[in-house]
Amino acid sequence: MLLLLANFLEQYHPDFQVLGYLTLRAILGVLTALAICLLCGRPMIRALQRRQVGQAVRDDGPASHLVKTGTPTMGGLLILAGLFVSTLLWADLGNRYVWVVLLTTASFGLIGFVDDYCKVSRRNAKGLAARWKYLAQSVVGLMAAGYLYATALAPADTALILPFLKDFSLQLGPLFVVLAYFVIVGASNAVNLTDGLDGLAIMPTVLIGAALGAVAYLAGHAYFANYLHIPHIPGAGELVVFCAALGGAGMGFLWFNTYPAQMFMGDVGALALGAALGVIAVITRHEIVFFIMAGVFVVEVLSVILQVASFRLTGRRVFRMAPLHHHFELTGSPEPRVIVRFWIVTLILVLVGLATLKIR
Asked: pTM value?
């Protein structure tokens, strides 16, 4: 929005050209989203408390979590507010990728909002029926994937690239839609499963979002993309502003979500942020690198799958409790220790993922 205004005012004074710099708008995006969340966080917590929008803790979870019952939830609305306002202010609104990410994030956020509302209104942790939630996610995921496929401008836009392999690309054709669907919906649910401890999900989301922002910048720059032998996706660089805003909003939310949490993000935040990461990975054509960087999310999902499969097939559990972070809690690790160690692992995986851009 402000970029359009700056372009108009540029004819009257050349100093307005400075807002054309992507890096400056990214920095302003971080600061704007951070400021919104820090300023609105406390009033939002009070508003949620007045309306008794409290967390309903699952009765099959760790007993130590029962003390969290009633903690304000749906804090993801704060993240989305900072993210959307900042992106709309500083991003190029004529860029189609910006709108794909915004609309996908908003749609998954709406699904999460309905789920959270069902939990709060019914005073239990079940929420929206799983089949309806997954159906809604599937519809949105397929729409986003189908749009990206239908509007692809070059073969590179729908090609699969593999880390460590130079100049390798596999044309997916219609299979692109299938891959994109699983990445978007899978990432959304993976972040949601990980969001079980104070601050556990938001910090990895910020780290991965920052890394994807760097990937988007490189993929959108013809020289850097050619130098690194990655697909050049014209226009993808504008997603840096979105990723920067995500980082600012995430850090602002973490101010209130760090242990012991004053507010939880709820499904409205977890589903939306996971989908945002997934669709950015798809646009930049770095799904496999994204899987590496999001290794913590991937392991959390696999722990649930293994637990369910093992119990149904053998009657035995692989872990004391799934997702994996609950297993570590029940083995005696304090919650803050589990959280910080998961952060450290994510940082390592993000660095490994970024390293693959050069090692080819």
From this structure: 0.94
